[in-house]
Amino acid sequence: MGADSLRGPQPLDLASIRRAPKALLHDHLDGGLRPATIISLAEACGYDKLPADDPVALGTWFRESAYSGSLVRYLETFAHTVAVMQTPDGLTRVARECVEDLADDGVVYAEIRFAPEQHLEAGLSLDEVVEHTLAGFAEGESAVAASGRTIRVVCLLTAMRHAARSLEIAELALRFRDRGVVGFDIAGAEAGYPPSRHLDAFEHMRANNARFTIHAGEAFGLPSIHEAIAFCGADRLGHGVRIIDDIDRTGSEPTLGRVANYVRDKRIPLELCPTSNVQTGAVESLAEHPFALLAELRFRVTVNTDNRLLGDTTMSNEMLELVNAFGYGWSDLERFTINAMKSAFIPFAERLRLIDHVIKPGFAVLIG
């Protein structure tokens, strides 16, 4: 695959890629706000700590802060977005606009994650936080449908790995599992907070036949990936980019270590986020991103945005960056999209319907 991939009659530019049906597995709700919305919500709730009061300047501040090369510094930017997502109106508006923005970019399926425990400062309960967010997703889906388009958006509930509420958030995810929440996740700084600290939450999810992903292999390296899959039983790996540390590239052919072999053999999906991985220092540059090698070795790679505001990115931008860096064609982008859809946490019949009736026909038009 790659440069020799089949090219269709449509040019592989941003406008054409936006028309392609896309599936997104790793996108943080609090990392994708519109700058103008942050300013508006800050005024409404009396938050006066924004670093800028102009949408353009604020967007620039977020991007520049995100390109620090430090995951810790990267995560600090969320203090501002989370601050304006403490009320019913704030949560609902952000969720609605998230759906609208993704649909405008051609996304047809998205799993959006956020940490309810971070939205309790105005007195909302955990259940209320989830209810208002899901209401926003539903409003967004309705608005998109009214415009003649379709998007399916579901939710992952995230627990913060430095806190001690993971079991409580797992239980919350199960309470809403038939109302739009399809899984569970842990996130936050990896160093010093191994996933095994939250083993009771993962065991509770497995005991109830529920799905979960784990942020691992982004900043801390291979040990976090090993724990996530061997001890915790993760269905997917959030990022997982450091799996490259278990692949020996010194010989004529890459040689996989035991962890890398297990991840590939078990078809454990990698939620790769190219722009974000560069921003946080997980990789030096997009040209050096292991995405291409992992795809060539047939790991189940998927393309994701992580935080659209911080990366000033969209799914279409992420795909175009991969096209420019590695020479991918339409058939490659279709494969990555189908990888994501196969790995989604919705039921098999829904996944198959989207693959057969939305994604494949949509790419067929572009491929020709």
TrEMBL record:
Pfam families: A_deaminase
Domain Adenosine deaminase: 21-360
Classification via InterPro entries: A_deaminase, A_deaminase_dom, Ado/ade_deaminase, Metal_Hydrolase
Claim: Cell membrane is one of the keywords in the record: no
Positions with a binding annotation for Zn(2+): 26, 28, 215, 306
Record GO biological process: adenosine catabolic process; hypoxanthine salvage; inosine biosynthetic process; nucleotide metabolic process; purine ribonucleoside monophosphate biosynthetic process
Protein name: Adenosine deaminase
Species in which this protein is naturally found: Antrihabitans stalagmiti
Gene: add
